[in-house]
Write a structure and sequence with these properties.
By secondary structure, this protein is mainly alpha-helical. It has seven helices and four strands. α3 runs antiparallel to α6 and α5 runs parallel beside α7. The longest helix has 31 residues.
Length: 227
């Protein structure tokens, strides 16, 4: 008779050195202390996902009127509330489910991030092709983070002081600029590229650089340690 092997999620530390990490942690703890009993981490995760859908729809509707960009920005705030607070609330109430929480949270995050970036790509401000390339860059960095969590035991939330909250703030600022700007483009290699396409291309390049340098560093450290 075969024995049933139990698997455990490897214990890891969360590393967040982003610009907003200190005050964000205090705000999330303050919110967790005041959440009504009927608000659960699962409800917060759902709120964050609904907000991602809201952002996608808002970018789609920006083809008809740029005022929907404000709705997208509101969606980022709600997404931050649900996505950032769910884990904090679980830890505050001591109701963590490490394997379930880790799996479900990041699975839903992947879908939400796809909706947000693709939504940006179907807006009139960013090319869908450029958005999809940015999505690849984002997923490369995400995959690196998940592998690092398993192999090294460190869940790296931020890179060069930039984390998910900083990305949301930047996207809200970009939404504001898009609302007050005309859609101007430049021609490069027979392609018409908007200035917002350029921002996304540069961001993708930076993400790929982070992915490559982090991969080389971890592989080198593991080789030296003989693991």
């Amino acid at each position: 008779m075969k024995k049933k092997h139990e698997t455990k999620l490897k214990s890891h530390i969360r590393e967040n050195e982003s610009l907003t990490a200190n005050w964000e942690k205090k705000i999330l703890l303050w919110l967790a202390e005041r959440m009504p009993a009927w608000i659960t981490p699962d409800i917060l995760t759902t709120i964050g996902f609904i907000a991602a859908i809201m952002i996608f729809v808002s970018y789609l509707l920006s083809n008809y009127h740029p005022a929907f960009l404000w709705l997208a920005s509101l969606g980022f705030i709600i997404n931050w509330f649900g996505d950032s607070l769910d884990g904090t609330l679980a830890r505050y109430r001591h109701i963590e489910r490490p394997k379930f929480g880790y799996y479900v949270d990041h699975t839903i995050d992947a879908i939400g991030e796809t909706l947000i970036i693709c939504g940006l790509g179907i807006s009139p401000y960013v090319s869908l092709n450029v958005a999809l390339i940015a999505l690849i860059g984002y997923f490369l960095l995400s995959i690196q983070t998940f592998i690092c969590t398993y192999v090294v035991g460190v869940f790296k939330i931020s890179y060069s002081k930039m984390g998910p909250t900083e990305v949301r703030i930047i996207l809200i600022l970009i939404n504001t600029i898009m609302f007050f700007s005309e859609i101007n483009s430049i021609r490069i290699l027979s392609l018409n590229i908007t200035y917002f396409d350029m921002i996304l291309i540069i961001s993708t390049f930076i993400m790929v650089i982070f992915y490559i340098t982090q991969s080389i560093k971890i592989a080198s450290d593991l080789l030296k340690s003989g693991e």
